[in-house]
Each structure stands twice: as C-alpha cells, then as structure tokens.
Amino acid sequence: MSQFTADEILAMKILLARVIRGEDEKVAIDEQRKALNAAYIAAEKRRDSAATAFEAFGFNTNSKELWKEVKAAMGPVAWSEGFVLGGRMPVVTNPQEAQSEEADQSTKETDEAAAPAKQDIPTVREIVLAQLGAAGDAGVKAANIRKFIEETYSQTVHEKTVGMTLYRLSKDGLARRDGRTWFSVTPSAETENPGVDAPGSEEGVFS
Questions:
Q1: For a disulfide at 187, which of 100, 141, 155, 191, Cβ 3.0-4.6 Å?
Q2: Which pLDDT tens digit goes with each residue over 61-71?
Q3: pTM of the model as a whole
Q4: Under a CB-based contact definition with an 8 Å cutoff, are residues 184 and 132 in contact?
Q5: Total domain count, the chain
C-alpha cells in the first residue's frame, strides 16, 4: 500500500501532468522555431535577390545611399506605389503634394542640402520594436505606440499601420499579444538579420 495519501498522489499526478505538458510544449515550440528560421532564411534570400537585381538599372547595390538613389530615380509617387504593392500601408495620402514633389524632383536634387532631410526618421517597424523593448514585461498597446510616433516625429500615422506592423512582427516571432497588450519577444541568434539595410523609411511611409 502506498505511503502517500490519496490527496498527495493526486497532487503528484497534477505535477507530473504539468511536467509532461511542459516538455511537449518545448518540443512543439522548437519545431515552430525551426520552421520559422527556415522561412526567415528563404525570405531573406528572396529579398537579397530582388535588391541585387537593381544592379540591372545601373545602381550600386553596395552603396549606403542605395534606397535614397532609387527613390530619387523613381519619384515619390512610384516609390510609394511600390511599397503599397509590397503590402505596406503608406502614411502620405496627399496625391497632389506627391505629384508636386515629383515635378520638382530635379530642382530638389541640386538643392537637397538646403532642406533638412527626413532620412534619419526610423521606420514604424523600428519604432514599434523599440517601444516593445522599452515596455518590457508591462507591454504596450498599439494606440500608445501610434500616439508616441505622432507626438515624437510629428507624423500622421494611419490608425491601422501600427496594428498591422505588430501583426507582422508576431508572424516573424518578434512580438506576442495578450488581449490588446503587446510584448516583445527576443529572437534567437539564428534569426538576426545579417543582410542589407531595408529601403529606408516606408513602413509608415516616412518619405
């Protein structure tokens, strides 16, 4: 006969069940991580292949100013349309302003130094990642991140932009949600991106 009472045995069964579930969850998460890493590598290859293809148009893809040069060559309208085709939602929605900017592009190229550039403004993705990291275990809501962007960078952000960015980050394994609160997920070393910088400031589109 067991030296333990029925209640003690019940408690041990519950603890054993938790151990088993924990082990199985670890295995499942490890498989998901492997699949995510494989998908990440494949996406990175597609991205780098497309970036290198700009050499066919005479661009130096090793240049630190690559995306600035591509945007100047395409014009702001085509540049923003390219981001829309890529699945990002632009912030700039004034076509008249964009057309005027495109018409004056040749003048701006010669007078570029006279006006303060916005190239140093981070992308919405970068801002969101930073805000998630700063929030830590407390987490942060999408509305608060949007308010931070608008107040800090004087940019009007579409109400769905931050939410869509957080959703993409969750798909990339970089964020998770509990209700309406979002938290940072630290990626493993295998998922760090060693590739070429992204094409500038258009998660939002800060042009």
A1: 191
A2: 999 999 999 99
A3: 0.40
A4: yes
A5: 1
